[in-house]
Write the structure tokens for this entry.
Amino acid sequence: MSTALVVLDLVGIAAFALSGALVAVRKPLDVFGVLVLAGATGLGGGFLRDVLIGATPPAALQDWRYLLVPFVAGLVAFRFHPALGRVEREIAVFDAAGMGLFCVTGAVKSLEYGLEPPAAALMGMVTAIGGGVIRDVLAGRVPVVLREELYAFPALLGAILAVTADEAGLHGGWVLIPGAVFAFTYRMVALRRGWQAPLPPGMDGY
Amino acid sequence: MSTALVVLDLVGIAAFALSGALVAVRKPLDVFGVLVLAGATGLGGGFLRDVLIGATPPAALQDWRYLLVPFVAGLVAFRFHPALGRVEREIAVFDAAGMGLFCVTGAVKSLEYGLEPPAAALMGMVTAIGGGVIRDVLAGRVPVVLREELYAFPALLGAILAVTADEAGLHGGWVLIPGAVFAFTYRMVALRRGWQAPLPPGMDGY
Amino acid sequence: MSTALVVLDLVGIAAFALSGALVAVRKPLDVFGVLVLAGATGLGGGFLRDVLIGATPPAALQDWRYLLVPFVAGLVAFRFHPALGRVEREIAVFDAAGMGLFCVTGAVKSLEYGLEPPAAALMGMVTAIGGGVIRDVLAGRVPVVLREELYAFPALLGAILAVTADEAGLHGGWVLIPGAVFAFTYRMVALRRGWQAPLPPGMDGY
């Protein structure tokens, strides 16, 4: 289980890092801006969670593979961005997988650090959306997860599922898999069908 | 005393959350963006203080009422923003009350965590303005407390009063109330009279 | 050694604070905005490092000189910004010196807190560029170190030199000085010759 989790974790970080790097390439930022955005997007959500729950230094700073993956993803995006742009829909699948994974692992880690279930579910969502929020703030735009993309809600629901399963006394994959699969599936359907979250009443003509 | 403090704390957080949610409604962000901005504005200042002084996980993550209040405030603002927009001056009163409270409680908490008086006063100000700064950064605008609103200065003075009272050996309400009342009153007068902080010499024609 | 380090540290913080204050003056922000940007730019990189490596409260919150220096720098910039604007190239020298110092001291402090060498080098870079990134985010612009200035790369190389020297068993100045001098020199040459980091292939016509 553990090896599978690390591999999935790194795949999710790579997808997040690619999304950050592609935003940077399109500004365009320079090569170091691309690498910084790749790193901040790939690792930022976990950093934010770890700093808030008091799990410092963050796990990613204690394992070189977590630093290498966004670095390589950033270089690849810098060099091959036209080709990557053509497979952006495929990258979105890995990004959704990363989101599904991070919302449940973030929630479970927060429970392990003593947070109550509602706070742990919230931290699961923060883990999943934090990197994208940091990416957009650094790139000078309002975070897309707050205005266009149905992203935070699937992450929150996935985290709630994981917290509920944990509270119900389940273990291991029974805690992680249902929430991760649900969040991933919801996100993919929302992407394919163009679902968006409701705008405030009276403001949807903008 | 303690119950009164918690109630005031929650009222201040609700006012901050409403201000964040109204900014989000007017962008407009979607319902999740409104909720995230409500939460980040209501709780962000305290989170920032707790992370900096090493008081993690932040208190608000250990008490579900602190999560429920911004959530409800965000939903109310999402649904009833036209009505809320008409009572925005009244919301500003509660916002000023929250600011007055947070600057003194933030300063005292920082003293309790071993900070020296000048740093504790600064952390009191950070507690009071942090949520608004995060709100504006997420909404893609330069923080209003840095350019338009006389807000940071009353918060800093209130925090200095609280730190000074604590250093003088006073206790409980004698530490908290003068600074809170002063910061609140100063802020309200500044709001009503349209006081603004001075611009750099030669730049006020902008 | 220690006194020299503190003096250099404060000189670097002053230069960073001046750069933050000048950005604020030119928006223009008001006097409190100028002071907040001076403080955030001068101390933000160290705060970010200390929060990430778990060294809270940050050292600067435990020594009033570290709070006084950006405060005074902010006031000076507010009042005398036209004169400061004329010596901006000279300020850039001190800024480069601060960058050179912070990348090595940040890396060494991170090693002391148990980080592995690659993560420590990264944290050295974060220490050196963090204040400028926070400055630009608060001022509503995409961080210049990500798109225009050759700044992050010298900082990273300087941090790598320091980490390598430490790993090689060297001590004191032998760890700090080569990396600091290298980063400073590289930065100064880049500034004088207008070197910029490469843009993504195909995007350099923007």
About this structure: Chain A has a mean pLDDT of 94. Chain A has one domain: 2-193.
